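> call design_seq(struct)
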């Protein structure tokens, strides 16, 4: 009781800062960012692919269906959960989290994603998309693992950091097309642990073309996983 009163008192004197704008907001707030910043986050529209969550150009397409890419080549994963579009201030804060040594952003970004995960998540294990050891030493942490651990902490689900490994260093993906990414990542992911019969939620920060999570899902399913779903904070609209 005394601890709660002390925390509330300190919260009024030193309110936490919003991770997007740096402004103060109440520690009692249920949202991961301040109200002003939450208003800038562009949620995924209802009109999106039922598998990869790609937003459709027309907002009138309300019934769930596959996008053209998924019709041509169905991904190995079953469904994608994504909180928002990879645009605006959210894109900037994910960049800080990923490239500028801000691991403390794991909690607000995972908090945003948690708002869009089903209340009853039929999952046995959370698995982050891996980094190659060279990239991990360069960054000092795997942002996907930090997100997965935070999701697991809140939902009380186990997180396994060593199920997947990246055995080959690959070129940066930002400027590559989907076909080029698939060539770039071919044979880069390996299975390190038994996942037979497991329902897995594969976690990453951003999905652009979906090639990375597709190839990771293929490895998991080839190892006997019962199902792979994907969870990302942001989904990039393909231009």
């Amino acid at each position: 009781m005394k601890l709660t009163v002390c925390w509330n008192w300190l919260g009024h004197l030193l309110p936490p800062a919003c991770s997007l704008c740096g402004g103060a907001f109440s520690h009692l707030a249920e949202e991961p960012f301040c109200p002003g910043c939450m208003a800038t986050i562009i949620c995924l529209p209802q009109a999106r692919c039922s598998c990869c969550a790609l937003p459709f150009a027309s907002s009138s397409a309300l019934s769930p269906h596959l996008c053209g890419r998924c019709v041509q080549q169905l991904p190995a994963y079953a469904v994608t959960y994504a909180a928002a579009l990879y645009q605006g201030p959210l894109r900037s804060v994910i960049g800080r989290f990923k490239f500028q040594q801000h691991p403390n952003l794991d909690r607000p970004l995972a908090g945003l994603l948690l708002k869009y995960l089903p209340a009853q998540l039929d999952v046995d294990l959370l698995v982050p998309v891996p980094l190659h050891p060279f990239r991990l030493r360069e960054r000092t942490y795997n942002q996907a693992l930090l997100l997965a651990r935070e999701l697991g902490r809140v939902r009380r689900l186990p997180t396994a950091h060593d199920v997947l490994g990246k055995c080959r260093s690959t070129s940066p993906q930002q400027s590559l097309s989907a076909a080029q990414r698939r060539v770039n990542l071919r044979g880069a992911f390996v299975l390190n642990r038994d996942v037979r019969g497991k329902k897995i939620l594969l976690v990453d920060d951003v999905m652009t073309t979906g090639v990375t999570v597709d190839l990771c899902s293929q490895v998991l399913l080839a190892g006997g996983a019962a199902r792979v779903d994907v969870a990302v904070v942001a989904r990039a609209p393909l231009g």
